[in-house]
Amino acid sequence: MDDVSPAGRGRRTGAWCAAAATALSCTVTGGAITAGAAAARAGEAPARPPGWCRPDGALTARAMPQKIRLSECDLRGRVVRGENGLAATVPSDGTSVTAHSLRTDGASELRVEVDEAKGEITLTSTGTRVPQGRPREFRAPMDACQDDAYQQEPSRWPKGSTIEWHYYPGTAGLPMSGVSTGVSNMFNARTDCNAAHAFAPPPDVSEKYAGQTTTSPNLTAGGVCGDRDGTNVSGWESMPGAEANVLAATCTWFRGATTIESDTALQTQGKKWWPGPQDGSSCPAGSYDAAAVTTHETGHMLGLGHVEGSQHSGLTMAPTVAACDDDPATLGRGDYAGLIALYGARSSSA
């Protein structure tokens, strides 16, 4: 399989704490003495936090090293901002979080991996903007039914599990059908690539609708991933503080390589939505297909990442969607291949 890694735009790489002239300039891994502890033993004042470790407000991933020692700057409970305004609250319960946003002009990802055993946090931030006109690196889109590219995230749900999710209706009076259809499309590998309209066998993971909830997805009014609450929620949410181009955001919490919770919010502030063709209606100009967007976001919930490159734009997990575009509601070959790589095939008796 062609496992396509995200493009390098916005990615921050490189190690922090390069070799320094004195032992007090850097925290040492493996249980060695930290700079502050060494200074205290020497009768000196503890080392000051790095300049980028401001005591108040959100911190910017681009201004920080990729790996951060908790002894130098404890980010737990703090908000970190990645590319294109995407942000997440660093978990304080030992879990990690990945935030995704789908925009009218591209997509973004921010991953915050917390390793309390090592006493460090690793940040990964990427962002893609769709250029105006025909970009220099443009490659003609492949047939989605032949394109086997996919990208996996670092965590997934246990194979064979049934994931319960709740629907949040929000306050805009928008229908549930687009959201529920999108969730079902991804779990059941719906496609237009064959007469059955589904890839077979489906992945070995299932969904169960657990009813409507009055609790919104765990995203703030600014579109920031908040603290998890143990419930998977997908639905409509007004996020007036998010950037204007944001269509939807998904926050996925994980421990080690195991996903433990995921929430998806479709933006109602300033956006027009169409439930999708399954309702027998046509798309009003300038509206976005809720089923297509939810199918894409459910891919993130299950552990699929963005597949970048214009040649892969026919896949559900491509990092862009246009108004009235219902193609992402049906999976391409690579989308299905990614699910099978993550979960294997569901048995016929399941």
From TrEMBL:
Molecular function GO terms recorded: metalloendopeptidase activity; zinc ion binding
Membrane-crossing residue ranges in chain numbering: none
Record domain Peptidase M10 metallopeptidase: where: 254-344
UniProt entry keywords in alphabetical sequence: Hydrolase, Metal-binding, Metalloprotease, Protease, Zinc
One Gene Ontology term, aspect cellular component: extracellular matrix
Gene Ontology BP annotations: proteolysis
InterPro entries: MetalloPept_cat_dom_sf, Pept_M10_metallopeptidase
The protein's name: Matrixin family metalloprotease
